[in-house]
Write a structure and sequence with these properties.
It is a single chain. Helices cover 30% and strands 21% of the residues. By secondary structure, it is α+β, with helices and mostly antiparallel strands. It has three domains: 23-121 and 422-488 and 497-540, Immunoglobulin-like, CATH 2.60.40; 142-218 and 247-412, Rossmann fold (3-Layer(aba) Sandwich); 621-771, 3-Layer(aba) Sandwich (Severin), CATH 3.40.20. Strands 2, 4, 8, 17, 19, 20, 22 and 23 form an eight-stranded mixed β-sheet that branches. Helix 4 packs across helix 8 and helix 15 (542-559) crosses helix 19 (635-642). The longest helix has 19 residues, at 702-720. The chain is globular, with a radius of gyration of 28 Å.
């Protein structure tokens, strides 16, 4: 049976393989000095709960090695079937099989020992105190909507229709709450059936968690005095979920099936914020207080249960905690220049507030999702810490009516094929061979500060731990783990050192249906002699290396003042090429790179020009948004962010990949650019003229109609499978929106070389160097003696 389940995973076509792990180096140097000479950090990109048809699900508890190792039994363990003993590959401890494994033999092995099952999932039935597996239903998911009302009438209309669609898609048992904010915060008591009952909080100052609970009647003292139970006006809610003893959960959070009508009525009555806005002033908006109240409510009602705060924000916070700009319109919202010069008066205070909010949400096990839709900035740069540390989703759009917002918002609640597989309450533990230390993780998680011998002294991202919390995670959530190689004295002693290293990732999480699961992935890689460049080259993954560098540089740009990313990348690339390239000293023409490294200079060229390194022309909010997605997406998706893909459509050939170069533009071609955040369909001049003349509707020009339709269909496929939904731009050569394509192309033809351009092609007005010039300089610098 297990053989049928296993082996169907398309390891050939899938670069992540069945384990969902990719490494910058698949052969590891044995010493710290050799690792530093490799330039690119030794790192693994892991997708902890990646959907894979080949993952074997085992309905029992895992077998663990004795503490402090506690690794789970895997196919790499050495098993003595006669003595019923297994040896852990990580710590070499000998462990006896328990009695219920008595039938084990070479012909009868449990699923976790199948050689192809390096990733398995344990789904043990929950045990009841009295008898067999418990029949109590798993806890329902909780959604608390936090809605900004400081909007114009039209935007509020778009937001309401998106909310109505979302409420219709929620599972019937999901608990739903509603909170709106403008100048003040309004929390709706949905369980009060007779009339609409609202709790109002002032938005001008920080409110402590105890104060919030007192006002809501949820603190221990108010529950003792019977404030929440048995009062007139409440619908008696059955106590199935075993939550707060007072039933207070059902005052503010009701099952979607019970409150659909009440929510629809509230949305119908919802108006834009009625507080008057003075001339020359921004609307007073208290985003920080609203999120504090939401976190306090969930902490009192459903601690430790999968719950999401879904914040729909339409402008900057202008009062109270988390404020990013004053109400005075003469003060602009902070820019990158202001942050560099330390001229953003509210920035550090707001970040501190959101850091504390993140700590509170992580301790409660809750997620903050942010949907920001506005033409100006709303404070994503400040809120980044609380979204990223709780594993929340983030979408940045121009309007609540824009498809980027509408389609992304809908995707959260869809199930079946289109489901994101949103899971809750994850913890990741990493265990590895003795000569390896963990520096930290870049990605949507929080360090649980579980220090141990496996922690490195150097910290990258969320470090100083071997265990991380992921309040929210989904099938595509990806983390980058950085390792340090520290050979111990024992491994340097005489005798044959172990040629393999082992790393085990343990992910405990609550699935979309509420069931608890443990995903165990055990991987092995080879130790090699660091002075043997050929073996290192053989195990190099240039796509993963480019993404690891992009994530590492983005982190350094945020953490270190005056960090020159372009220069750092250039120097790293020169060192790498001089270490692994083939060349004769002082002869640039002799320089060649192994195919395993050959695309890396191109990746670096595009990374230097990308929105992750060049913040010019992007707001701090946009930069924060791009980096958050870079840090949580798979390697394949992240590569597209760094180096977009380009397809060319023409009459005389099927769609073919084209060079990401201005020379690919031709008047009789259509180009389809996938830059991850946007998808661009670009019509050459002649194609656009024919389309404007309406040739495609004439029966004799059927081929032209098909040519116009093909990129549209391909773009739809890209958009359908992606979250957040990318922006679709349809433009013509020499049109204003053609900039979306031109900005991404290699400027091989500029205004300086216009005389050499093929008719019908294009030039780019820039002083940037082209890829050819970049590579020439690289060759010259690498071969210098």
């Amino acid at each position: 049976m297990a053989e049928e389940l296993v082996g169907t995973g398309g390891a050939t076509s899938d670069p992540d393989g069945p384990d969902g792990v990719r490494m910058s180096w698949n052969n590891w140097p044995r010493s710290k000095i050799e690792a530093s000479k490799c330039v690119i950090p030794v790192a693994a990109s892991i997708t902890p709960i990646r959907a894979s048809p080949s993952v074997l699900v085992l309905p029992y508890q895992p077998l663990r090695c004795k503490p402090p190792c506690s690794a789970v039994l895997s196919p790499f363990a050495r098993v003595d079937f006669a003595a019923k003993i297994w040896i852990c590959p990580l710590c070499f401890s000998r462990n006896h099989f328990p009695p219920h494994y008595a039938g084990i033999s070479e012909a009868n092995v449990p699923g976790e020992l199948y050689p192809q099952c390096t990733t398995v999932e344990y789904a043990p039935p929950p045990l009841d105190h009295h008898s067999a597996p418990s029949s109590a239903p798993p806890p329902p998911p909780v959604f608390l909507f936090v809605i900004d009302t400081c909007l114009i009438e039209e935007e509020l209309g778009f937001l309401k229709s998106a909310m109505r669609r979302a409420i219709g898609l929620l599972p019937d048992n999901a608990l739903v709450g509603l909170l709106t904010f403008g100048t003040q915060v309004h929390l709706y008591e949905l369980g009060f059936a007779d009339v609409s009952k609202i709790y109002v909080f002032r938005g001008i100052k920080e409110i402590s968690k105890d104060h919030i609970l007192d006002q809501l009647g949820l603190s221990a003292s108010s529950v003792r005095h019977g404030a929440a139970v048995g009062m007139p006006g409440y619908t008696k809610a059955p106590q199935t979920n075993g939550f707060h003893p007072s039933g207070s959960v059902h005052r503010f959070l009701l099952p979607a099936a019970d409150c659909e009508y009440a929510l629809s009525s509230l949305l119908d009555e919802l108006q834009t914020d009625q507080w008057p806005v003075e001339a020359g002033s921004r609307a007073l908006r208290c985003t920080g207080v609203a999120l504090s109240v939401a976190a306090g409510l969930l902490g009192a009602c459903v601690p430790g249960t999968g719950a999401r705060i879904i914040a729909l924000v339409g402008g900057p916070c202008t009062q109270g905690p988390g404020m990013i700009v004053s109400k005075d319109l003469s003060e602009p919202v902070r820019s990158h220049k202001d942050l560099d010069k330390d001229a953003a008066p509210h920035f550090h205070k707001a970040v501190k507030f959101y850091e504390n909010l993140a700590k509170q949400l992580v301790s409660q096990g809750h997620v903050l999702d942010l949907f920001a839709s506005a033409l100006d900035q709303v404070g994503v740069a400040e809120m980044k810490v609380s979204v990223e540390r709780t594993g929340g989703l983030v979408v940045l759009a121009e309007s609540f009516g824009h498809p980027v917002f509408k389609d992304s918002f809908k995707r959260i609640f869809e199930n079946g094929q289109q489901s994101l597989g949103l899971s809750f309450n994850g913890t990741l533990e990493i265990n590895c061979s003795k000569d390896i230390r963990i520096e930290g993780i870049i990605g949507p998680c929080t360090s649980l500060e579980k220090k141990g011998t496996l922690c490195a002294d150097v910290v990258v991202g969320q470090g100083n731990t071997t265990s991380w919390k992921m309040c929210g995670l989904d099938r595509t959530t990806c983390l980058t783990v950085f390792f340090e190689i520290v050979p111990s004295e024992r491994s340097n002693q005489s005798g044959i050192p172990n040629p393999q290293l082992y790393i085990q990732f343990l992910t405990n999480y609550q699935g979309p249906e509420g069931q608890m699961r443990l995903r165990v992935t055990t991987i092995t890689r080879r130790w090699v002699d660091g002075s043997n460049a050929e073996e290192l080259i053989e195990g190099f993954d240039q796509e993963t290396a480019a993404v690891v560098l992009a994530r590492y540089v983005s982190l350094k740009m945020e953490m270190e003042e005056e960090f020159d990313a372009t220069r750092w990348l250039d120097r790293s690339l020169i060192r790498l090429c001089s270490r692994f390239g083939d060349y004769r000293k002082d002869d640039p023409a002799s320089f060649t790179l192994n195919p395993n490294f050959s695309i890396l200079p191109q990746f670096m060229f595009n990374l230097r020009r990308s929105q992750f390194v060049q913040v010019f022309n992007n707001s701090p909010d946009e930069t924060a948004y791009f980096r958050m997605l870079l840090n949580r997406e798979s390697i394949t998706n992240s590569v597209v962010m760094i180096q977009p893909s380009l397809l060319s459509y023409s009459f005389n050939s099927p769609p073919v990949p084209a060079l990401l170069d201005v020379a690919s533009i031709s008047s009789d071609r259509i180009l389809l650019l996938d830059a991850y955040f946007s998808v661009v369909i670009f019509h050459g001049m002649t194609i656009a003229q024919w389309r404007n003349m309406g040739y495609q509707i004439q029966p004799e020009h059927q081929a032209f109609a098909q040519l116009l339709q093909a990129p549209q269909d391909d773009a739809r496929v890209i958009i359908r499978d992606r979250f957040p939904v990318p922006r679709l731009v349809i433009c013509d050569q020499h049109g204003s929106q053609a900039r979306f394509l031109l900005a991404k192309l290699n400027p091989s033809a500029t205004y300086n070389s216009a005389h050499e351009v093929v008719p019908g092609s294009d030039v780019i007005f820039t002083d940037d160097v082209s890829l050819q010039v970049f590579c020439e300089h690289l060759r010259r610098l690498v071969v210098q003696s």
